[in-house]
Amino acid sequence: MTSVVLVLACVGALLATSAGAVVLARARFATPAIYAATCAACGAALLTALSHVIAAPADVMSIVLPLGLPWLGAHFRIDALSGLFLVVVNLGGAMASLYGIGYGRHENAPARVLPFFPAFLAAMNLVVLADDAFSFLLSWEFMSLVSWALVVAHHREPENTRAGYIYLIVASFGTLCLLLAFGLMAGPAGGYGFAEIRAAAPTSGLAALILVLTLLGAGSKAGLVPLHVWLPLAHPAAPSHVSALMSGVMTKVAVYGFIRIVFDLLGPPAWWWSMVLLVFGSISALIGILSALMQQDMKRLLAFSTIENIGIIFIGLGLALGFGANAMEWAAALALTAALFHVFNHALFKSLLFLGAGAILNATGLRDLDKMGGLIHRMPVTAFAFLAGAVAISALPPLNGFVSEWLTFQAVLVSPDLPQWGLKVLVPTAGAMMALSAALVAACFVKVFGVAFLGRARSTVVAAANEVDRFSLAAMLGFVALCLLAGLLPGLVIDAIAPAAELLVGARLPIQMHVPWLSIVPVADTRSSYNGLLVFAFITASASFAIVLIHRFASHALRRSAPWDCGFPDSNPATQYTGGSVVQPIRRVFGSLLFLAREHVEMPQPGDTGAARFRVEMRDLIWETGYAPIAGIVGFAADRLNRMQFLTIRRYLSLVFLALVGLLLVLVVWL
Amino acid sequence: MIHPLVYDVAHLLAGGMVLVSFMLLYQDRMHSLLNVFALHALVLAMSVAWEALIQHAPHLFITAAIALIVKAIIIPLALHRIVRRLEIHRSVETVVGIGPTMLAGMGLVALSTALMLRVTAAADALARQDLAFALSVVLLGLLMMVSRRNAVSQVVGLMSIENGLILAATGAKGMPLVVEISVAFSVLVAFIVIGIFLFRIRERFDTVDVQALDRFRGETQ
Amino acid sequence: MAVIAALLVQSAQMLVVLLLAPLLTGLVRKAKARLLRRQGPPLLQPYRDLLRLIRKEAVVAENASWLFRVAPYLIFAATWVAAALVPTFATGLMFSWSADLIAIVALLGSARFFLALAGMDIGTSFGGIGSSREVMIASLAEPAMIMVVFTLALIAGSTQLSTVAGFMMSTGVGLRVSLGLALVALIMVAIAENARIPIDNPATHLELTMVHEAMVLEYSGRHLAVIEAAAFLKLLLYVSLISSVFAPWGVAHAGATLIAYSIGIAAYAAKLAAGGILLAIFEVSIAKMRVFRVPEFLGAALMLALLATLLMFMTRSL
């Protein structure tokens, strides 16, 4: 009872902050004050959720407020699953607000951001808390609308308005799908509380339809390919701390919605659901990271990489469904734990990376990688934090990204015991796609870090950039510390996830904190184990050993000189590899098929001293084949219907009348 | 009781056929393609000979010998000669890239394994896998034929299909010798016909790209 | 007492790999030279090279960042830890459970990540060439390696390398097609990862064909020594990995007698020598590929490894 009330109180505080921001937005002190208040409210909610997850995870606390539909009321509830996601939401929220205290100072139009920011966090909290279909959908739609307002905060830039437009359409489509899904689940009797829905058992055909609708609704919000088109447009358009929230947290709220409906409300799964999820998950992973590799815009690149991570999460969820359908509860718990761990990890490092991109944007005004370079000298702390984020997202030990991928691989390795042939073929293929995309992530972040932070400055603003303020640095370093903590002591996180796994699939991983030496042993210690702490200690020890040895016996002399570069150093920074040239080999391998990438070289005529030009042409096949035709049809229909604008009143009336009669006729025929 | 390793070797040789089929798909030079094809036939001969040993079926040795002499030695040598005479050793012209072809090959192997293991549930485990491998070799040969333009590589594809058929036949115990010899001879005849045909195409059209024939299909276009 | 013995064996293993690694490289170079009817450098030349580099002053470009100077040690440490986790002459090492095969692959990935970054730090075009090609090669070699790991893990029922090696030593494994495919794929990956012909030429200084050498072009003195040592260790790691999984004869069990350990060490030395000479023979009998032929080579490795995994998945229930 108490936690849910406390979190709701924090939500109330957030909404009040939002209302206050409407009034105060123009005041000079407004920005730090609003962000500080938001940070405090999120921090309080975070502490409440953490204490719930740690102290009494199995407790279910619910409350009914007399809001919303009169016969239903608004149900709110905290159980193990929503506790976890409340931690994710409020952790991201608190850190982003902390960052905002410094970052928000550079905002041109604070009145367009400040009121919506706390409201956005409140909406996400409400989605996770909701315990009936009505409040869930209302909060979901509120979340969409507020985030839309933040996306179009800088509405003077034409691409932002386009992003907002597409986002609005996809979000409405998603909510429509969820609305239908809940309608089907509630049935004709109209039991809209989650408790009633849980009790009802839909037929297998109906359940399949609900699954598809949920996948469309929640998947479009999470950014599953091919419903992802809005995401790489909308996430970068918002201010950076909002981008961090949208990528790091809002996609997780969408994952929450999917888990809540499919694992909790819908009843026992069929095995082929797993196939659907695995297919969409692995396609998202691969397409997401390959698209990310091709980007020059730093924030858009990070947004595409979010799609990849969502893909990995859905692979984990798909495995969990497959195991669950075959009554292999412990394996389902392993896969679900891996997915939820990745949810947590991705919230940490993607927020960190977006905050880093925001810091660069703040210091230089740039998002284009090919104008950066050498920022490690000008912004050392940001560079360190970004490097940590890059290592974490590339799934390299000893940071946290590796642990969740490792767990997912372990889940793949127990799946040969699945009886269905479709899964036997698909699971290893999905595993291979995941391994491939993991390797491509490392390539992608070598590119980002190498081009932005290393090398020499490619423009004058970058050469004169200054380190960002203390609040921004504090937020980034906080995330770095959390990434390290979750990587070194993964047992802590796994144990925190265990009650949610128990709730959803009826089994849990063994308690990890009791394993000697703080290792993690998901199945049995003869099968697999990993100890991040020890690996970290080993690396540190052997690196120190090497350093000590070298400095004891070797020459200490160090001389600075011009670069060697095989004897022909060129002082022009334009001779460095750019983002496009770093990925050229990978583009040739994968891009010619997936993006129809073509390279055009235009050489000047012999004797002409003009520059040669090199152009890369890439096409977005998903947009061209999936979306452009729909847009074309809608446009065509709208043009036709345009004629109706100029009718007389009598004709309008007759249209209304005919429509009414038609509907009545349908009723007569149907009943 | 025969040692289980005996079956393992048979199984490994059958798997080796699939591996060499993939190597065939991977080659992009004419001469190396022919060398790999000789290897394909060699592995087939070894596999058949091994089967002859463990099944105590001496007539299979004849099949192995035919495979070794005709397919691993004579036909590759003759094809080498043709390639040199026609001066087409430069490269294998592919319709789609090697990467996608290998990917498709993967899918075919997965398909044939899944299919064979499902439909032959009654047989014993190794025989089922051997059948699956044989079907994979046949499908990979077909894939090679459809993904290559050059007539010589199509010949190689055809022969590797035939190797796959023999592999399947020796795995299933008790195939009559007559059938095998007739199959071998028919392939030999096919080879001779195609060989002559190749020279004829070359004389007429100055290329061995089979697309050149499309213009003479006698259809109204 | 047992703990101290286990600790001793673990430390011995770490020292053995560190001390033997340059010798293996020296052996490969010598064997290659002899096969080409050259005299070749002495076997101990790599040790001398390392000592000479350590004694020299380090020349660092003016705009090098701290990452450039830290990276060699990180690369070395990650590679060394990974190499120390592979069973060489004895299984069941004390800390072998702290990281499994997947983690070993990822540790090598960490080393490569920092090496590629170091290549880009100075902002020269050769560094960029090296890094960009290295990440392309890695993006195909790493998944192939993971698929090989999957195959081994499915056969042995564990991703722990000690357990896998122990299982391979037991009878009852037999010859398996998927194991054969995995071996071929693993060798292809090992060739690519160690920058050997036909992927990359470790002896080249012809600029446009370099991959590994291009990344470390700006390094000198002690930094270069540490990076070279890491490269030697990596070669040793892959030879040990292949021999411990596919030729596990003579490896001592944990807590064995001194005699068993000596046999283990002798067998290990013999396997290393065999691996080095085979590698030399392979390298002199093949030409280097064009860079854009490499993806096909590694794509084939990935396909084979995936095929092996698929076969394991599908024949599991038989």
Low-confidence stretches of chain B: none
Task: Show the largest interface.
Answer: A-C, 91 and 90 residues
Counted by DSSP, the helix tally of chain A is 25
Helix share of residues of chain A? Answer: 55-70%
Beta fraction of chain B: under 5%
Radius of gyration of chain B, taken over Cα atoms and rounded to an integer in Å: 18 Å
Order of helices and strands of chain B: HHHHHHH
Rounded to an integer, what's the Rg of chain A over CA atoms? Answer: 26 Å
Q: Pairing-aware structural class of the strands and helices of chain A?
A: mainly alpha
Number of separate strands of chain A: 5
Determine the N-to-C terminus distance of chain A.
47 Å
**Most strands sheet of chain A:** 2 strands, antiparallel
**Biggest sheet features of chain B:** none
Give the topology string of chain A: H per helix, E per strand: HHEEHHHHHHHHHHHHHHHHHHHEHHEEHH
Characterize the overall form of chain A: globular
Query: What is the topology, as strand order, of the major beta sheet of chain A?
Result: 1-2
Average pLDDT score of chain A: 91
Explain the overall architecture.
With 671 residues, chain A is mainly alpha-helical. The longest helix of chain A has 36 residues, at 329-364. Chain A is built from 25 helices and five strands. Chain A has helices at residues 2-24, 30-55, 80-103, 116-129, 133-151, 158-186, 194-199, 204-222, 231-237, 240-265, 271-294, 298-325, 329-364, 375-378, 380-393, 400-413, 421-452, 460-463, 470-488, 490-505, 532-553, 579-582, 584-594, 621-641, 649-670, and strands spanning 61-65, 74-78, 558-561, 598-602, 613-617. In chain A, strands 1-2 form a two-stranded antiparallel ribbon. With 221 residues, chain B is an all-alpha fold. Chain C is mostly helical and 318 residues long. In chain C, α1 crosses α3 and α2 (45-55) runs antiparallel to α9.
Q: What key attributes describe this structure?
A:
heterotrimer; A: 671 residues; mainly alpha; two-stranded antiparallel sheet; 25 helices; globular; B: 221 residues; 7 helices
In short:
The complex is a heterotrimer of chains A (671), B (221) and C (318). Chain B has 221 residues and is mostly helical.
Task: Please render the helix and strand layout as text.
The complex is a heterotrimer of chains A (671), B (221) and C (318).
Chain A: H1 2-24, H2 30-55, E1 61-65, E2 74-78, H3 80-103, H4 116-129, H5 133-151, H6 158-186, H7 194-199, H8 204-222, H9 231-237, H10 240-265, H11 271-294, H12 298-325, H13 329-364, H14 375-378, H15 380-393, H16 400-413, H17 421-452, H18 460-463, H19 470-488, H20 490-505, H21 532-553, E3 558-561, H22 579-582, H23 584-594, E4 598-602, E5 613-617, H24 621-641, H25 649-670
Antiparallel strand pairs in A: 1-2, 4-5
Chain B: H1 4-26, H2 30-55, H3 59-86, H4 98-119, H5 125-147, H6 151-171, H7 177-205
Chain C: H1 2-35, H2 45-55, E1 58-61, H3 66-84, H4 101-121, H5 125-156, H6 161-169, H7 177-193, H8 212-215, H9 221-246, H10 258-284, H11 294-314
